[in-house]
Amino acid sequence: MDRYLLYFADPMCSWCWGFAPVTRKIEETYGEKLPIRLFMGGLRPGNTKIMDDRAKADTRSHWEHVTELSGQPFDFSFFEREDWVYDTDPASRALVAARRLDESRAMAFLRALHEAFYTQNRDVTDAETLVDIATEFGFDRDAFRAAFEDPDTTQETHADYWYAQNAGIRGFPALIAVKDEKATAVTFGFQAWEALAPGLEQWMNA
Description:
- By secondary structure, this protein is α+β, with helices and mostly antiparallel strands.
- It has a single domain, classed as Glutaredoxin, CATH 3.40.30.
- It is about 55% helix and about 10% strand.
- It starts with a strand and ends with a helix.
């Protein structure tokens, strides 16, 4: 019986960062019995608008809500940035590059990007910063840079966005359980492990 989870996320989605302990718990609980297949949902790819005070206030409110519900930490010095554009495409492309190099490490690299952005206030819209993070994570620097700059990686990233849109995914995190090619929604949006676990266990035992 073929079972797996489809996880639609974004490296710059604060609710996905809040959901990171849940995906880790799924991995710890089910391991290879229930692999997670990660796709980039496309939060704000190609955004060119500079983050103004209103956007900062809205984003800060989201972050405060995420940390309240999930306990995940944030570095709020992020909001001192000036003339910064919230473009999620470079970080998503970096994740796809990592997935192409070693799919088994994709979820761990997603968490590394989350941590870099949300707890270390690193600019994950910057290509060189992304290469640095990947190198620190354990990827070969030249191999990662080549994968990141490969046009096929860009195409695969955009294919992820298309897949998410055509699957009806409108927000993140989104988790879908698949068994024998039959899909069942686990969650559209953040849920704590305690809320999500019983339904997932029931699905596993069905």
